[in-house]
UniProtKB/TrEMBL annotation:
Name of the featured protein: PAS domain S-box protein
Listed InterPro entries: Biofilm_reg_signaling, GAF, GAF-like_dom_sf, PAS, PAS-assoc_C, PAS-like_dom_sf
Entry keyword Coiled coil: yes
TM ranges: 49-74
Record-linked PROSITE patterns: PAC (PS50113), PAS (PS50112)
Domain of life, source organism: Bacteria
Coiled coil: 320-354, 471-509
Swiss-Prot/TrEMBL keywords: Coiled coil, Membrane, Transmembrane, Transmembrane helix
Record domain PAC: where: 426-480
Residue intervals of the PAS domain: 506-575
Keyword match Transmembrane helix: yes
Organism: Plebeiibacterium marinum
SUPFAM superfamilies: GAF domain-like (SSF55781), PYP-like sensor domain (PAS domain) (SSF55785)
Length: 625
């Protein structure tokens, strides 16, 4: 209050006190004027004072009550002043609290305007709130950094997997693409890819297959023997080597502005199933973060597996090429044999035709083929000269002999059956095995024809034969060649199966890596059909993967979002240009119909004409306190 207002209060209380005393005196005076004693007097004020001496005290009563009002006003003013000081203090305190709260709301957590008074519970609570917010902000910042690192590693592994799938038939190109990707993705200065080879003597050595510095390919030839230097040590120990204290003579990074030693060297072995295939060496002017080292180590196993697969592919291709050459050679031989057989068949058909149509020219046939005549029981009647030359007998040695002397013991039963059929008037035409005088094995293409008289009786059997021993040998050789070719093809087929198993194992291992990611990861083809749906995606959407795989991606969004949100509309529409590599916050629709805000990061992969899109999704969580 203002000073003039306090003065008015003092005056009002004093006046009212005086007025109260005056009214009391007036009331007493009026009451005493009606008394009998006063009425018997002259009715003057002096008479009243004389009759009632106490009136003298009442005369000073207005002054006494005025003084009492004055002192009461002083007490009231003192209370008002005390309240004013209290209100002023509380106003300043409220202003400081309001300013402190506004600073907290604006994120200014370093505000120290609020005094920490032990008796002020509100200040103590606000200071505790500030300390909690500072702690929470630090934890959120740390969580954000860790989340960015996990996203960085997950995205890098996905992109790295695409590089390994695109380059699986050329080791040099694969090595350069690997080291180029790692140098650029890690934003370091220099990297080298050392591939383990073996010379003709069986000695192991490391060859610098690819080198990259300052985003430019370096053409350097460097060979490091097994167990030599840090490269050899890294391969022998099969463990990562990380150095920050680099000797001056170890390595120098050179650019157009000069040269300098790196601050950190990272060597990671390329191993799978405890077998080393090479070493990656990375150099940087900045020290490597733990998550960067972990990323390189994770990619090293995939690199080693891919190198193993490429080497198997190269060896398989080489064997397949050799097998194709052998197959072509065998095919040529088979074609030649087939032509010979066709010629022989044509010759035999021609011989049969002549036998039916030209029975009168047996003498000409006798001079061109092995021929003989024998009785129905197999006893020889006559033979020609070719017969004797083929079986290496003299005429007197076979006179009266049976055909069974020309058959091996195992073939006697077959010959008896042929003779039985001839006795029944049946002709015989086919290839038979016979035995010469020296015990040699020959093959004859034979035709046995019964000669029937006018009475229908068989008088003798006419035999015409061609020596096909050479052709049979060629057939046996062709059969063995086919068997060898079949074995080679079976071996190549088994090797291809093993290779496909290893490739499938790498694929399964990469999918398990993505399956274990904390972020939801989904993959669609260019038509928008879902092909991959990890466990985190199942948890986020509430669907089992069997419910979504093979379905269109639009089932994961509401119809309104799919039509009106540009990012989602492009994502679910076939043929639309997708927004790649930029994080977007969009709502999704889970299995229960609820919309959940998430962060989308979309990447694209292309192998030939095949496109696929992989999305990394993070749930947006908001904590209130």
């Amino acid at each position: 209050m203002k000073r003039i207002e306090l003065s008015n209060i003092l005056n009002k209380f004093t006046f009212r006190g005086f007025l109260l005393g005056f009214l009391v005196v007036l009331l007493v005076f009026l009451l005493n004027m009606n008394s009998n004693v006063f009425l018997q007097t002259n009715r003057t004020f002096a008479d009243m004072l004389y009759i009632f001496p106490g009136m003298w005290i009442l005369i000073v009563l207005p002054f006494v009550t005025g003084a009492l009002g004055y002192y009461a006003a002083l007490k009231f003013i003192k209370i008002i002043r005390k309240q004013r000081r209290t209100l002023k203090f509380e106003a300043k305190r409220s202003e400081r609290v309001l300013k402190f709260i506004n600073n907290l709301r604006e994120g200014n957590l370093n505000n120290t305007d609020l005094v920490n008074d032990k008796r002020d519970q509100l200040s103590k609570s606000l200071l505790k709130l500030r300390d909690y917010l500072v702690k929470s902000k630090k934890e959120q910042e740390q969580n954000r950094i860790e989340e960015e690192q996990r996203t960085w590693v997950t995205q890098g592994l996905a992109q790295f997997g695409e590089i390994l799938r695109r380059n699986n038939d050329n080791l040099e190109e694969l090595a350069f693409n690997i080291i180029s990707y790692q140098v650029n993705y890690l934003k370091i200065n220099q990297g080298g890819f050392y591939l383990l080879n073996t010379n003709a003597k069986g000695d192991k050595y490391f060859e610098l297959t690819a080198c990259l510095a300052f985003d430019r390919k370096k053409f350097a030839e460097k060979v490091i023997q097994w167990e030599e230097g840090l490269i050899g040590r890294c391969a022998i120990e099969k463990d990562t080597i990380y150095l920050t204290d680099i000797p001056n003579e170890y390595i120098t990074i050179t650019s157009g502005l000069g040269q300098s030693n790196p601050s950190a060297i990272l060597l990671v072995p390329l191993k799978v199933n405890d077998e080393v295939y090479g070493v990656i060496e990375l150099a940087s002017f900045k020290e490597f973060e733990p998550f960067e080292i972990e990323f390189v180590e994770k990619t090293a196993e995939s690199i080693a597996s891919t190198i193993s697969t490429v080497q198997i592919n190269i060896q398989t291709t080489k064997l397949l090429h050799e097998t194709q050459i052998q197959a072509e050679r065998m095919s040529q031989q088979e074609e030649e044999l087939r032509q010979n057989l066709e010629e022989m068949q044509a010759t035999q058909e021609e011989s049969d035709r002549r036998e039916v149509e030209m029975k009168g020219i047996l003498e000409a046939i006798d001079n061109s083929a092995i021929s003989c005549e024998f009785a129905v029981d197999g006893s020889l009647i006559s033979v020609n000269q070719l017969f004797l030359e083929t079986f290496k007998y003299l005429p007197e040695e076979i006179e009266g002999q049976n055909l069974k002397i020309f058959a091996f013991q195992d073939d006697v039963e077959e010959l008896s059956k042929i003779l039985s059929d001839l006795q029944n008037g049946k002709n015989f035409k086919g290839r038979v095995k016979r035995r010469t005088k020296l015990g040699e094995e020959i093959f004859l293409l034979s035709t046995y024809t019964p000669v029937i008289d006018n009475n229908g009786e068989i008088v003798k059997i006419l035999s015409l034969e061609n020596d096909v021993t050479e052709q049979v040998g060629m057939e046996e050789q062709m059969k063995r060649s086919k068997e060898e070719l079949g074995e080679l093809l079976d071996q190549a087929r088994d090797e291809m199966k093993e290779q496909f198993k290893e490739i499938e194992a790498v694929k399964v291992r990469n999918e398990k890596t993505l399956e274990g990611a904390l972020d939801a990861i989904i993959t669609t083809n260019k038509e928008g059909i879902l092909e991959f749906f990890n466990a985190a995606a199942e948890k986020l959407w509430g669907y089992e993967r069997a419910e979504v795989l093979g379905n269109h991606i639009s089932m994961l969004f509401s119809d309104d979002i799919a039509k009106n949100e540009p990012f989602v509309k492009a994502y679910v529409t076939t043929g639309e240009q997708k927004l790649i590599g930029e994080r977007k916050e969009v709502p999704i629709k889970n299995k229960f119909g609820d919309e959940v805000d998430v962060l989308f990061l979309l990447s694209e992969a292309q192998v030939g004409d095949d496109h696929s899109f992989t999305a990394f999704i993070q749930n947006v969580e908001v904590e209130l306190f």
